[in-house]
Amino acid sequence: MSTSEPLSGFTVAIVADRCRDELAGMLERRGARVVLAPTLRVVPLAEDPDLRAVTGALVDNPPDIVVAGTGVGLRGWLQAARQWGLGDGLRTAIDSAYLLATGPTGGLCGGSGGTATDGLATDGLATGHAASGGGSGGAASDSATGPGDVLERLLRHGVAGARVAVQVHGEPQPELCAALVGAGAEVIEVAVHRWVPPADPTPLRRLVDLAVSRLVDAIAFTSAPAVGALLRLAGPDIDSLLAALRADVAAACLGAVSATPLVHRGVPVVAPARPRLAGLVAALVEELPERAPTILVAGREVVLRGHAALVDGKLRPLAPAPMAVLRALAATPGRVLSRAALLTSLPRGADEHAVEMAVARLRAALGGSAFVQTVVKRGYRLRVD
């Protein structure tokens, strides 16, 4: 099988909902096998009655300050408002406010000859600057890099007696909102991304098992709520899942915001310099081949990938059971592992006969019995001498 693509043999799980097809296509074109397991699904904004009610209230009584968390969310909000007949009113309300951009907003700022909302880009970190007037009809705008920076800038700007609309991306921001209220502001939370659990949680439970068994090489996260949902669903397996993410399974995050819940739990993350899907894929293309274990077995170079092994550069696809056995044996090259020890690496419910079958299939896939030796009455070992 060809190894011309850099991610051939690697398995990457995607827990995103909104951009999963685009991300999956990019990974597959580079040779990866993709596992789709969305942790959450986004409620269509135009169908969200709470957002419609908040929008109407802001049109009737415009805010003094708008904290825009994501460019995608703000554009979606404006599009939904147009469907409700509130688009012009909402745009006017935002453009008359002091606009503070934070997170992947793509440069939310007023420019010469335009308004604050004219500057929306598809994604990326905010690159706005303080602008007095922001162009014809526009208000001042600014950019920040996180909740702490947002609060510092707002307090410096002054919020006492001000109406502050805070765009919430998926999950509430109680600390920011409480601090603003404590400083004398009236805070209106605007949930432009409301998440609900997937209709079928089975793929997620399967993903937890795959990650714990080291049968995926990476999990791609595009939002902090998706990270939190996966950790909650892991339940009693959360410690095992975190152990896998800290060692053998790469946690690939779109940016600093999505990485935060993992970083707080001591999980190292792979992330692009700028929050773009293409950058996320490029980071995986660089990271995964570098961390693939390489051992010399029976005089041949064997490189372990998620669902395959490279034997002297040739890709050898492996089913989950023989792959799990190979990983267990490769963890301590040359050491004999009993059938009982190897059994712990196989999916739940397997028996020692399943170990024998997995070893037989592993030998066949690698190219012969010389790779895995039987040690009578003791078990199996990789031939590394």
From TrEMBL:
Keyword set includes Ribonucleoprotein: no
Domain OmpR/PhoB-type residues, every copy: 292-384
Record GO terms (molecular function): DNA binding; methyltransferase activity; uroporphyrinogen-III synthase activity
One Pfam family of this chain: Trans_reg_C
Domain of life: Bacteria
DNA-binding region: 292-384
Protein name: Uroporphyrinogen III methyltransferase
Gene: hemD_1
